[in-house]
Amino acid sequence: MKAKSLVFAALAMVMAACVPTTDPKEEFVPEFKVSGVKDNTVSVGAGAKDVTVSVTSNLSWSVECAADWVTINPESYTAKEDKTSETVKVKVSVSANEVEEARETELVFGAEGVDPVKVTLRQAAKEHVYKTITVFDIDKFEPVSDYSVEAPAMGGSVSFTVQANGDWTVEAPEWAAVTPASFTYTDNDLADVTVSFEANLVETREGEIRFKGDFEADLVVPVSQAVVPTIGLTLGTVEPKSIGFTTNPSDEEFLYMVMCESKSYFDQFESDEELLAAEVEWLQDLASRNSMSLKDVVDKLAYYGSGEGVIEAWYDSDYVLYAYGITYEGEIITKLEKIAVHTPLYDFKFAGTAIWHDVAMGEMFGTGQRDLPCDVYTVEGLDGHYFFRSPYNYANLCGWFVNATPEEFFPEKDAYTKDVYIEIDCTDPSAVVYEMQEIGLNVNDEYGWMSVGSTYGQYNYTGTLENNVISFASGYLLVIFPDEVNDDGSVGGLYGIDLSRYGKFTITIDTDATESVYPKDPEGTGTTMAKAYSKPVVPVVANQFTRERISKRTILK
Hints:
Blueprint: H1 2-17, E1 32-35, E2 41-44, E3 49-57, E4 61-64, E5 70-73, E6 76-77, E7 86-94, E8 103-111, E9 117-123, E10 133-137, E11 142-144, E12 149-151, E13 156-164, E14 168-171, E15 176-179, E16 182-183, E17 190-197, E18 205-212, E19 219-225, E20 234-239, E21 242-247, E22 255-262, H2 263-266, H3 272-289, H4 294-301, E23 307-312, E24 318-326, E25 337-342, E26 348-358, H5 359-365, E27 370-379, E28 385-389, H6 394-397, H7 406-409, E29 421-425, E30 432-434, E31 436-437, E32 449-452, E33 461-466, E34 469-472, E35 476-485, E36 491-498, E37 505-510
Parallel strand pairs: 2-9, 12-19
Antiparallel strand pairs: 1-3, 3-7, 4-6, 4-8, 5-7, 8-9, 10-11, 10-13, 13-17, 14-16, 14-18, 15-17, 18-19, 20-21, 21-23, 22-24, 24-25, 26-27, 26-37, 27-28, 28-29, 29-30, 30-33, 31-32, 32-35, 33-34, 34-37, 35-36
Helix pairs in contact: 3-4
């Protein structure tokens, strides 16, 4: 019995092994599961990110997303023939969020016959980057708040540094030119900016320079420009030896100079700016030579406020009266104001003739004593002043030299017929002043011979007047050599010669004479009867503007 039982047991086991494990009639159970997400939600930062999602299913499936910033791989799956489940890893690539707003979308996983699985995908906003722009102080290494520009009225430029971590462009008034007009941000956030201005001659103007870009706020630099002040220079009374003027400045506080120079001096300069530069150079040189500060020189010479003034001049001469504003530091703050002036010739009245008895000239040139005739004139209102039509005009000058005619000595057309008047002050008979004489005027702005009196101060021709005879005890002859180069690089030598060793020279006046001692001017020369003293021009050499100034300061009333 026992053996029979064992056989049946073995047979039962064989039969059991031949029975299939799955019942073909068993119902198919679909599987569709999305894993790797919590609560069907995926959250990522603003940067680009890859997220992996697992799909386990025995069905064919696909995944869709409407957002263009999401890429899915793979997007679909085909089920196996035996309908067994398989897990597939799906890579969800999220591109960087370039906007400062969060965004979200849905990933829809779907398969036939089952409900779709929806996964919410959220991406954070791009982090806000604060872009700023400011004026930056390089020296203090810190930003500047409330920066503004006060443009120079005379024009010029103002520079400052702008710091920005972004690109910018500039908007500015048409009267303010900004360089550069734009900036591209790289690893350098600093830009040197220059704003240029023309002189403002109209009215005070205000505006703003705006630096625009993707900043928290634009950089706005207020800009203003005052009007160039004016001196209001007008010509006053012009006398033969003085030029009057009045001033009415637009600002009563600023300093200004009023000057008068010969037209020949003024014409040396090609522009007003060149002349003004020479003025500043002259003031600086004046300060240096007198061991003074520029401020002290300007303080002594400059005017302020409205008023009247007078500048000494010489008759029958061309001048330019001019004015300009200046600071104590020598900065020019106005345009040049200028007026052409011609001083009149005195209304001469014939008063007789005279003979110049000149021993010195004859001794110097070996021609013996020169007795030179001339006419004498007086002027109403100038009692005691005598004006001598110079015996040392170009024609008579040639008489000092043996075998030299006027035409040979001065070949320039009409030069030898020109005259000067010599003024001698005889108001005090015991102290006659021989004010000024020039022996021959300049020809083509080149120096000739000159003898001078009290205008130069140290060269005084003084004498006495007795019985219509003026006697000079001594004096100087001032000789200028135009071609000599001095140690300081300037050109022109100035030498004084004491004439007293040659003996006296006198002037004998014949007040009873009724006719001129001069012959008529040569026909066709077109020369005038007389020519007043005209101050020679000092040439500009090696940018050195040097001259003897004829201006005398008169306190404004």
